[in-house]
Amino acid sequence: ASQEEGRRCHQTLASLKLELAERMEEADALEGKLKSLRGRLHQTNADLEVKEDQLQELKKQNEVQQEMLEDTQKKLMTFVSQSEGTVDKTLLRRLFVGSFQAADAERQEALRLMASTLGIREDQLRQLRSREPA
After folding, report:
1. What is the spatial distance between Cα 14 and Cα 26, in angstroms, rounded to a whole number?
2. What are the start-end ranges of the E strands in the chain?
């Protein structure tokens, strides 16, 4: 009976050793997966930091471009407001002098061009012509 008991203990012990070896293999496999996942996590975090740096750089570039755009818009508006109402005096002088020297049809065209340049509407010009002495 004691030999039988010893054999059963020996078989149980062998079975436990086999199960322990299987569990150790599983633990090693899980440890390998864990190391792999940690490596991937580290690489992903490094990639994320690079992307965040790139995003910050793009935001800075966007701000600079926005400032440049606003500055250009201000300069354009200043230029438009300063040049508004500016007349090409040389052109106007030639038209004026030419209107006195030209035939009647050409004179009427010169007056129309001057009126257009000065922002006088066509109906206003006709009204002025009607008052003109023959």
Report:
1. 18
2. none
